[in-house]
Design brief:
about 270 residues; mainly alpha; elongated; transmembrane; Solute_c_fam_35_mem_F3/F4; membrane
């Protein structure tokens, strides 16, 4: 006597159960019932796929928003942490705190200035941008010396002509002119946040120059702050379209996994 396989035993049990429930059921009725059961399974599978598509749509939207938000807010947060680490490396003394307050105030004023320049200039030709810089230079020539005289006469900051390091001052003025030129040009070509974070690289560069010329220690905390600034700047270099593509690839991976789970034989039990 041949040994029955598991599939044949299951088929016999299924036939007996159907014949027990429906004694008069023939093969035609059995085929109709199996077709109905198959239709129910397909509807169940389509419902699962529909829910997965809706969940994936919501997931894509959330991931895209996170990618776009992280590209801006995340870069700003990392840059702030990097600057704080540089401040912590030098200690939080009274002079340092005053310097940090002045730096924050300067950054806020500079941010308003750069955003205003971007709104007013927009995408202008190089000639118009150069004309604007020339106007700023003329105004600085006639107005910038007034605070110097006021501070000198009040005794807050006394400057003697014989003690002024003219060589260093002229080099500083030259780089300041170049900085203003490339600053406005960069705002016109890119956007203010990109230029602002790029300007923060002056902090680690100054620390490196101090370490080389004045033998000041470039500690591990400053190295970590420099890395955070580089990462923040690199985030801004990622285009929004690329961030969206990355999020879509991640979502497609999740969809493929969900599709494999739907076709798992356990769902048909």
């Amino acid at each position: 006597m041949e040994k029955k396989t598991q599939s044949s035993v299951l088929a016999e049990n299924h036939t007996k159960s159907n014949s027990g429930r429906h004694p008069s059921m023939n093969s035609y009725d059995l085929a109709i019932e199996l077709r109905n059961n198959d239709g129910l399974l397909r509807e169940k599978q389509q419902l699962k796929i529909s829910l997965s598509v809706k969940e994936a749509t919501v997931g894509i939207t959330v991931v895209i928003l996170i990618a776009i938000t992280f590209s801006l807010a995340g870069a700003v947060i990392l840059s702030i942490i990097g600057v704080v680490l540089f401040t912590a490396a030098d200690g939080f003394g009274t002079i340092t705190i005053i310097g940090v307050i002045l730096a924050v105030a300067s950054s806020i004023i500079s941010a308003f200035y750069r955003v205003s320049v971007k709104l007013i200039i927009g995408d202008r030709p190089l000639l118009q941008v150069s004309f604007l810089i020339s106007i700023i230079g003329v105004l600085s020539l006639f107005l910038s010396w007034i605070p110097v005289i006021i501070l000198s006469n009040t005794g807050v900051d006394i400057n003697l002509w014989s003690t002024i390091p003219w060589g260093t001052l002229l080099v500083t003025i030259t780089f300041n002119i170049l900085n203003n030129f490339f600053l406005i040009l960069g705002i016109a070509v890119t956007y203010p946040i990109f230029v602002s974070l790029g300007g923060l690289f002056g902090i680690p560069l100054n620390s490196i120059i101090d370490a080389v010329t004045r033998n000041l220690a470039f500690t591990e905390v400053k190295i970590l702050g420099t890395i955070l600034l580089i990462v923040a700047f690199a985030i801004l270099l990622i285009p929004t379209g690329t961030a969206i593509k990355i999020s879509q690839k991640f979502t497609n991976f999740i969809l493929c996994k969900a599709s494999r789970d739907l076709h798992d034989p356990q769902d048909y039990n």
